[in-house]
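so my prof wants the structure for this chain in the tokens format not the other one, which i didnt know existed until like an hour ago. anyway here's the sequence
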Amino acid sequence: SGDTLPWWLNYIICVIGNMLPVPFILLFIKSILNWMKRGPKLFAKIAVWLENKANKHSAKFQKSESVALMLFVGIPLPGTGAWTGTMGASFLNMGIKSTVLAVCLGVIMAATIMAFASAGVFSIIL
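here's what i got, hopefully its the right format
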């Protein structure tokens, strides 16, 4: 119909839209956490909890952190995705290039899964 975008344009817009905040999260999340620690008690508690959670799990992901990040971002479940994955990568001190590549591949993976689901491909299988 005339008022909808073709699927491939929706796909591209979704991938770009998911990736737009990634550099900003990488650049500013640690500053935001430091600001939160100096702020109200609730903010400080949240910041410390996030850092402790990241430190607790950092050893698990050191060998395969890029693959783990890609899969975390690429499996479309609540609480996973580009923004959360980027924040976690920042806490784990992953490099900028490897983070952006892993997150981008994960976003493409999630977008592909959702495109297939929207097209009804999985209803044929199930």
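also thought this was worth mentioning. The helical segments are 7-19, 22-38, 41-61, 65-74, 82-91, 96-118, 121-125.
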